[in-house]
Amino acid sequence: xxxxxxxxxxxxxxxxxxxxxxxxxxxxxxxxxxxxxxxxxxxxxxxxxxxxxxxxxxxxxxxxxxxxxxxxxxxxxxxxxxxxxxxxxxxxxxxxxxxxxxxxxxxxxxxxxxxxxxxxxxxxxxxxxxxxxxxxxxxxxxxxxxxxxxxxxxxxxxxxxxxxxxxxxxxxxxxxxxxxxxxxxxxxxxxxxxxxxxxxxxxxxxxxxxxxxxxxxxxxxxxxxxxxxxxxxxxxxxxxxxxxx
Length: 245
Ligand code: NDP
What we know:
CATH topology: Rossmann fold
Radius of gyration: 17 Å
Number of helices: 7
Number of strands: 7
Strand content: 15-25%
Largest sheet: 7 strands, parallel
Bound molecules: NADPH dihydro-nicotinamide-adenine-dinucleotide phosphate
CATH architecture: 3-Layer(aba) Sandwich
Shape: globular
Structural class: alpha/beta
Oligomer: single chain
Mean pLDDT: 96
Strand order of the largest sheet: 3-2-1-4-5-6-7
Helix content: 40-55%
CATH class: Alpha Beta
Order of helices and strands: EHEHEHEHEHEHHE
Distance between the termini: 38 Å
């Protein structure tokens, strides 16, 4: 076993598919104890079974990140059982693309609920423990959409700008023991685009997403940030397909 995980405990939200799943699999293989959280517990259970079969340390937990109390309870339970929580990977997210004049306000609310509130629920839940121990690491899954706003992406990009700001704000306010990393993926293989309801946005995504890189390409970026020595804080990584413009 690669020892770089050193028994550190990592909570990954949205670990049931795509980037979260790839991140959980990679970190478990590197020796971290990984807590996989999402709503689809059947999917989590199958992944955890796989990982344990391979001799890795992992567990699955049901979590809807929009439920603030449930998020705190989960974090408290992990800390009670494992004695520590070293890393939060705030990865859970939805991308419901459409033009502003389509006025899909319910979908805008949904994106803010999951991508922004779901993220700060996690930060709020782990901060007391991080402060008490004087150490911890928050990894946020933002997007290239935190740097650019293509048509149909206004609200989605707004949630990713928010994720970027939350992560940077945490860095500025925290002592040197708390590290933060914003990962900004480009087009990556996952189920993210499957939930788009706007037919024009969905149609556009077919060609746009053809250049997608495997989710493990993003997982490697997470792994890199976590593997740095305690005095090195990797704050942002943009990783996109070489073919993406
Ligand atoms: P997927 O749709 O494959 O994965 C999204 C994950 O989020 C799932 O595990 C889903 O689990 C979880 N999730 C959604 N809603 C909730 C909720 N309310 N509570 C808990 N978990 C939830 O897409 P990706 O892997 O692509 O997405 C992961 C992150 O990466 C997102 O934040 C996305 O914005 C970001 N990203 C992705 C890019 C890409 O091209 N793929 C590019 C840039 C950023 P479940 O449904 O079981 O709850």
